[in-house]
Amino acid sequence: MLLYRGAPAGPGAPGSALARPGSGPQAFGIRLSTMSPRYLQSNSSSHTRPFSAIAELLDNAVDPDVSARTVFIDVEEVKNKTCLTFTDDGCGMTPHKLHRMLSFGFTDKVIKKSQCPIGVFGNGFKSGSMRLGKDALVFTKNGGTLTVGLLSQTYLECVQAQAVIVPIVPFNQQNNILSGNGKC
Questions:
Q1: What is the per-residue DSSP string for 18-63?
Q2: Burial of 151 per CB tally in 10 Å (0-12, 13-18, 19+)
């Protein structure tokens, strides 16, 4: 996972406007609720210090279903930008599990008496990563499938999104094609 730290989006930043009434996604003719891109920045304020955000990300790596034994945190330079990287040797996520992890309010964490995770509300990765930077790029591998997910304030500003959009692209290594259904 790469995190890039940029300036927070302000009220006048591109893509920060609220959706106009009558616009936005619909299903079966019914308007659906959306989440403003500004929420990513405001949600990150739940972490008053960067260390609590890092704790959320480390907690995810050591969850019992992840099985990571080693976690590395490094500072990297990518295209003259300073990035914080988190790498673990866990089992990786299927495209479906990555989709749930990048969605708000979903969690697969199970509370056990021997290990109580920091967060069980499906918000920790999103709030933690956005506290540390404007963009989180997640690379994961599970079996023969590589998946990339992008939670990015920069992208949302660039495309002037009216709602949070999180691109997720799965790629099957065996036949070198993009996986269509996102479930493994």
A1: PPPTT-S-EETTEEPP---THHHHHHHTT-SSHHHHHHHHHHHHTS
A2: buried
Distance between CA 49 and CA 46 in Å, rounded?
Answer: 9
Q: Which two tokens stand for residue 141?
A: 């591998």
- Asked whether the beta carbons of 159 and 30 are under 8 A apart, the reply is no
**Strand ranges of the sheet holding 168-172, from the earlier edge strand across to the other edge:** 71-78, 81-88, 2-4, 135-142, 145-152, 168-172, 177-178
> What are the E-state strand segments in the chain?
2-4, 26-27, 30-31, 71-78, 81-88, 135-142, 145-152, 168-172, 177-178
Cα distance between residue 177 and residue 8, in whole Å: 36
Half-sphere exposure of 25 (CA within 13 A, CB side): 11
Q: Which of 127, 131, 86 is nearest to 104 (CA)?
A: 127
Q: What is the rounded average pLDDT for all residues in the chain?
A: 78
Query: What letter would DSSP give residue 17?
Result: S
Q: pLDDT tens digits, residue range 31-47?
A: 666 788 888 888 788 87
The DSSP code for 69 is S
pTM here is 0.72
